[in-house]
Automatic annotation (TrEMBL):
Gene this chain is encoded by: LOC105046973
Protein name, as recorded: Receptor-like serine/threonine-protein kinase
GO cellular component, one term: membrane
Binding residues for ATP: K551
Source lineage: Eukaryota, Viridiplantae, Streptophyta, Embryophyta, Tracheophyta
Record-level GO BP terms: response to other organism
Principal place of residence: membrane
Topological relation to the membrane, as annotated: Single-pass type I membrane protein
GO molecular function, one term: ATP binding
Species of the source: Elaeis guineensis var. tenera
Length: 810
């Protein structure tokens, strides 16, 4: 039996090697490209095409060296795992910070010098040694330049790692790994995290003051465990080890993976600052169904969010003004309310406020409020430490201080801090509160992008003082005519808008203007309960911009009332997770709304598209919708209930940030009003049970709809799926609880590997969703509590079984 098994495995390996050989024969190499392990003098390899171009292949076929395409017309000279074909895994690169274009080439010159030149012939990289006899790709994954004098290596990649070390690789004192700047595909530039073996024999992890190499204080250190003359070695049987002067070994990472011959291994300093030891089944190892999956065997530090120290400089794990949340061995970088990512493509670069910082010469504490973030801290040094001081006093002190942008209230102490804030993190054991200063909801200032480009008459008149008298007369005459024309339009009944209702923060458009902007309403973006949305182009801030124009064509009975509700609700709101209203048209029977354009469409089409969105993207979308709803329910000057939360009403901007739309058509509750009864609104499958029971309608109807949608985001499917027939899966809300209670979330997400690799987050999201869809509204958490549970700021209790009315509706 064992003989048959061995023969089968051997045959499989030979078949794989044969297929690989055939692929190599078919691959379009340059005329002098190598297909074996050695690169001879005079050989060149050109960067071209859409597939990896091999220059050398290790004898066993496990590692390849050559060009890989990063994006259209950008190439990396690199070493990678040759047999892992679905997800290309690079272990070393020559030009990560400077990818080259088509026509670039790598060459081993006749005088024994390896060089990478761009398409203009300029040298981009060279190891800086000459007298090389040949280059060879070793089975360990090491690219070696062999000396022509027979003394061994003139240079080899194992002594010059980038972000990864491999089994048998040794790191001597002074050795260094640098993380990539981000995990984005195609970005191999240096990041701000380092792993170093210091001259004193200590192994440390630290951040740097990028773009320099100045190191900040270590956030992980093996102080006291290393001896003089120590080095680091990757032992393929047990993990990364430190070897001391007396030859004793201490494990840095540990991996119990069975037979090392059956697994590929690597240890990588990842872009998030965590040093992880990965394993991957080799072809023919009996694990063919999992060939495209790397697993984490071990990692350091235990919690990157709480590890990074900022007392002596640096921004922390997530960048300035951001905060770090660690769950399921993964960190998430988040922005506080009213803060946005500096670089939406790289959330680890920190956050910036979407409002102007207070000026002490024109500061009014009444313009600001403090939001509370429990169990959250920014660890940079406080400029003022007040003690003893209770929370209410701390709030007042920060509000009255123009410099204070955030205060920490904990154990009777008040620590006031200024921007930039660093070392932000969520820690459930912390017990303190971060009190974050943000502007009050502005009911008079124009939204960003509309009025800043328009100069007020005093500014225009001031500019006129430097002109000639004749030009001044002409300009004054023109302004007078414009003023009279504007005054006349305001007196016209068709154009008159009640300033108390609309305010000065929206731009009024004429119907012909919007008709022209939309090319006579020629391109439909979508249709909703109250009208149709069209794509248009308008001039805003002296530049053309895409807009979405909503034509309200179903307001026959209560049209004006609904329109004014839209004006009040949307015009006074401003949040990064809401679609911004830019303007309106109210001419006779024509009522239209002008919104900012969302380039990535609706969440519905994104979730159910050809390619499943990544788990991280779905989590961030869920967080964004929760924050937006929390703002509508609890932070607006008057509470807004949406009444129709569903994926079609969640739009995605350029950066796939979730933005809630259509909330202006919901019933606006006055400040003193907490409950209302009205006709059923919403969409089947998302409607809370109280609509059908004629019970009082509160903000909990949105909580219910969010819970349904959260399950859809987790599972990438519709709540009600008729294609399942009488199967238990037909109603997602019912099936989800069964899977949760039976601890079979793998079935619920259809074995989504990304979701299952972050199982704690998956369990949390499902549990929160199940709390949201409880039949009794009082059992559902508020959206503020939902947001805190999602972000890990508060614990999520085990939810009871929800009762759904969906089955009875069909």
């Amino acid at each position: 039996m064992l003989s048959r098994l061995w023969t089968s495995s051997s045959q499989h390996k030979h078949q794989h090697q044969l297929i690989l050989a055939l692929l190599l024969l078919l691959h379009p190499f340059s005329a002098t490209a190598q297909t074996g392990p050695n690169i001879t003098l005079g050989s060149t390899l050109s960067a071209q095409g859409n597939n990896p171009a091999l220059w050398a292949l290790s004898p066993a076929g496990d590692f390849a060296f050559g060009f890989i395409p990063l994006q259209p017309d950008r190439f990396l000279l690199a070493i990678w795992f040759a047999k892992i074909t679905t997800n290309l895994t690079v272990v070393w690169s020559a030009n990560g910070a400077q990818p080259v274009q088509t026509g670039s080439k790598a060459s081993l010159t006749s005088n024994g010098r390896l060089s990478l030149q761009d398409h203009n012939g300029q040298e981009i990289w060279s190891p800086g040694v000459g007298g090389v006899a040949y280059a060879t790709m070793l089975d360990a994954g090491d690219l070696a330049l062999m000396s022509s004098d027979g003394t061994g290596y003139a240079w080899h990649s194992f002594e010059h790692p980038t972000d990864t070390i491999l089994p048998t690789q040794v790191m001597k004192k002074g050795g260094l790994l640098s993380s990539r700047s981000s995990s984005s595909a195609g970005d191999y530039s240096l990041g701000r995290f380092q792993l170093r073996l210091l001259p004193d024999g200590n192994l440390c992890l630290n951040t740097i003051a990028s773009p320099t190499d100045h190191p900040y204080e270590a956030y992980w250190l093996t102080k006291g465990t290393l001896g003089t003359g120590s080095y680091l070695v990757f032992n393929q049987s047990s993990g990364i080890q430190e070897v001391q002067e007396n030859s004793s070994r201490v494990n840095v990472t540990y991996a119990n993976i069975g037979s090392p011959e059956d697994y590929y291994q690597r240890a990588t300093l990842d872009p998030d600052g965590v040093f992880r030891h990965y394993t991957h089944p080799k072809p023919g190892a009996g694990n063919e169904s999992y060939l495209d999956s790397w697993s984490v065997a071990d990692f350091i530090p235990e919690n990157i969010c709480s590890a990074v120290i900022v007392e002596k400089g640096g921004s922390g794990a997530c960048g300035f003004n951001s905060y770090c949340q660690f769950a399921s061995n993964q960190k998430t970088c988040l922005c506080p309310e009213r803060y946005t990512n500096v670089d939406p493509t790289d959330i680890s670069k920190g956050c910036m406020p979407d409002f102007a910082e207070p000026r002490c010469d024109a500061y009014d504490s009444a313009d600001f409020v403090l939001t509370t973030m429990p169990n959250t801290n920014w660890t940079n040094t406080a400029y003022e430490w007040l003690s003893p001081m209770v929370e209410d006093q701390c709030r007042q002190s920060c509000l009255e201080d123009c410099r204070c942008m955030m205060a920490i209230s904990k154990d009777g102490d008040c620590l006031k801090k200024a921007m930039p804030l660093s070392g932000g993190r969520v820690d459930l054991a912390y017990g303190g509160k971060a009190l974050f200063k943000i502007p009050r909801v502005d009911t008079s200032a124009p939204p960003p992008g509309l009025s800043r480009g328009r100069k007020s008459p005093p500014v225009i008149i001031s500019a006129m003082l430097g002109c000639s008298a004749f030009v001044n007369i002409l300009l004054i005459s023109a302004i007078a005519l414009l003023f009279l024309s504007s005054h006349h339009r305001k007196r016209s009944p068709r154009a008159q808008i009640d300033s108390r209702t609309v305010g000065d923060h929206l731009q009024a458009f004429g119907y012909p203007t919007l008709e022209e902007a939309t090319r006579k309403f020629g391109e439909i973006l979508g249709q909703g309960a109250f009208g149709t949305v069209y794509k248009g182009v308008l001039t805003l801030r002296e530049a053309q911009a895409l807009v979405a124009v909503k034509k309200l064509d179903k307001l026959a009975r209560d049209g004006e009332k609904e329109f004014r509700a839209e004006m009040n609700a949307i015009g006074r709101t401003h949040h990064k997770n809401l679609v911004q209203l830019l303007g309106f048209c109210d001419e006779g029977p024509h009522r239209l709304l002008v919104y900012e354009f969302m380039s990535n469409g609706s969440l519905a089409s994104y979730l159910l598209g050809e390619n499943r969105p990544s788990w991280d993207q779905r989590v961030q979308i869920a967080f964004g919708v929760a924050r937006g709803l929390s703002y509508l329910h609890e932070e607006c000057s008057s509470q807004i209930i949406h009444c129709d939360i569903k994926p079609e009403n969640i739009l995605l901007d350029d950066c796939f940030t979730a933005r809630i739309s259509d909330f202006g058509l919901a019933k606006l509750l006055m400040r003193e009003q907490t409950r209302t009864q009205t006709d059923i609104r919403g969409t089947k499958g998302y409607v809370a049970p109280e609509w059908f029971k004629k019970k009082a309608i509160t903000a909990k109807v949105d909580v219910y709809s969010f819970g349904v949608m959260l399950l859809e985001i987790v599972c990438c499917r519709k709540n009600i799926a008729p294609e399942f027939g009488s199967d238990v899966r037909v109603i997602l809300t019912d099936w989800a609880y069964d899977c949760y209670s039976e601890k079979r979330l793998d079935i619920l997400v259809e074995r989504d590997e990304e979701a299952m690799s972050n199982r704690r987050m998956l369990e949390r999201l499902v549990a929160v969703a199940l709390w949201c869809i409880q039949e009794e509204p009082s059992m559902r958490p508020s959206m503020k509590k939902v947001t805190q549970m999602l972000e890990g700021a508060v614990e999520v209790p085990v939810p009871p079984a929800p009762t759904s009315l969906i089955s009875s509706m069909y």
